[in-house]
Write a structure and sequence with these properties.
Layout (H helix, E strand, L loop, with lengths): L3 E8 L2 E8 L4 E6 L10 H6 L4 E6 L16 H15 L5 E5 L1 H12 L7 E4 L13 H17 L5 H9 L9 H9 L1 E2 L6 E2 L3 H13 L1 H10 L4 E5 L14 H10 L3 E5 L7 H4 L1 H19 L1
Parallel strand pairs: 3-4, 3-5, 5-6, 6-9, 9-10
Antiparallel strand pairs: 1-2, 2-4, 7-8
Length: about 300
C-alpha cells in the first residue's frame, strides 16, 4: 500500500484537506472532479515512480474540506490551490486535473502561472459545447441530475453506499481503490449517512463551468508549449460518447498547435483514473512532463 499523509491547509473560511501519497522529491498536485474526492488519485499515485509525491486536494465543499463555506467556483478553488502549494513547500509542481478539476487546474495555472509547473488535463479542460440561449440550470439538471440526487440521499450503512456504487454502470471493474474512494466520501452516523459533497458547491461549480466557455477558451489560447490531454472514449455512465467528443478535439487541434490529445482506450470517465493500465498511463505522463522541466 502506498504511504499516505493528511495535511490541513489554512484557506479562507477554514482548512483545506490534502492527502499526500509517496515521499519522493518530485511533486504533483492533483484536482478531482465535481462530486469526487482526493482518493480518486490513489491508483495514479501508486503508479508513479518512487521519486514522486502526489498531493491530492479535497476541493472546497468536498471530502474532508466539506465544511469550507462559499463562495465556490474557479477563483476560490484556484486561490485554495495556491495556498496548498505554499503550505506544502512544493516547487512548481505538475498540476493535474480530472473532469471539473481539469478546468480548475487550467484556470489556476492561467491566473497564477508562477505557482505551478507543467499542466496535465484528464477528461476535461476543453470548453463544453453549450447551445446558444440554453438555460444553465436546465442544462445542469440534465447533466448532473443523477449526481445531485445522490447527494440528497441517506444511506443506512457504509455497505449500502458501497452497493449503490457497485451498481454504477461505469464501475464494472470494482477494485479496492474504488471502494476506499467511495467509503471516504461518507459522512454522518449509521442510519443517516450521506455523501460529503456539498450540493451547493456542486451546483455553483457546475453552473460556472457551463457559463465560462469564453474564459476557458481564453486561458487555453494563452498556453504556450505542449498541453497534454488524456481522454476517455466513454462517458459518466460507461457508454460513448466521452466528455470530450471527436468534434471538440478536432476544433481545438486546429486552434492550439501545442495540444496533445491521447485517448486512453477501454476507459470511461471514471475508470480512466482507477483502471491499472490507465492509471499507469497518467502516471507516465506526469513523470515525463515533470522530468522534462526539472532535469
Amino acid at each position: 500500500m502506498i504511504q499516505a499523509r493528511n495535511y490541513d491547509v489554512d484557506v479562507a473560511g477554514g482548512t483545506l484537506r490534502i492527502v499526500s501519497f509517496g515521499t519522493g522529491r518530485r511533486a504533483a498536485l492533483s484536482v478531482h472532479g465535481i462530486t469526487a474526492n482526493a482518493l480518486c488519485w490513489q491508483a495514479v499515485a501508486r503508479a508513479l515512480p518512487a521519486d514522486w509525491t502526489l498531493h491530492a486536494v479535497d476541493l472546497r465543499g468536498r471530502g474532508r474540506s466539506t465544511a469550507l463555506p462559499g463562495p465556490f467556483g474557479f477563483d476560490a478553488h484556484a486561490a485554495d490551490l495556491v495556498s496548498a502549494v505554499r503550505a506544502l513547500g512544493a516547487d512548481h509542481p505538475v498540476l493535474i486535473g480530472h473532469s471539473l478539476g481539469a478546468y480548475v487546474a487550467l484556470l489556476a495555472a492561467d491566473v497564477y502561472p508562477d505557482s505551478f509547473g507543467p499542466l496535465v488535463l484528464v477528461d476535461g479542460g476543453l470548453p463544453l459545447p453549450v447551445p446558444d440561449g440554453a438555460d444553465p440550470d436546465t442544462l445542469l439538471a440534465a447533466t448532473l441530475g443523477p449526481a445531485l440526487q445522490r447527494l440528497s440521499e441517506v444511506y443506512p450503512t457504509p455497505e449500502a453506499y458501497v452497493q449503490f456504487w457497485r451498481a454504477h454502470p461505469a464501475l464494472t471493474d470494482w477494485s479496492s481503490d474504488v471502494e476506499e474512494y467511495v467509503r471516504y466520501d461518507l459522512a454522518g452516523e449509521p442510519g443517516v449517512l450521506k455523501s460529503r459533497a456539498n450540493p451547493e458547491a456542486v451546483r455553483a461549480d457546475g453552473r460556472e463551468l457551463l457559463t465560462a466557455g469564453d474564459r476557458i477558451s481564453a486561458a487555453l489560447r494563452r498556453r504556450s508549449g505542449p498541453l497534454p490531454v488524456l481522454r476517455a472514449p466513454a462517458g459518466m455512465f460507461g457508454q460513448p460518447p466521452g466528455l470530450l467528443p471527436d468534434e471538440l478535439i478536432s476544433y481545438w487541434n486546429g486552434e492550439l498547435p501545442g495540444l496533445r490529445v491521447s485517448t486512453v482506450q477501454g476507459t470511461n470517465h471514471y475508470s480512466i483514473l482507477f483502471a491499472p493500465q490507465a492509471a499507469a498511463e497518467i502516471a507516465q505522463l506526469i513523470s515525463r512532463v515533470g522530468a522534462a522541466v526539472s532535469d
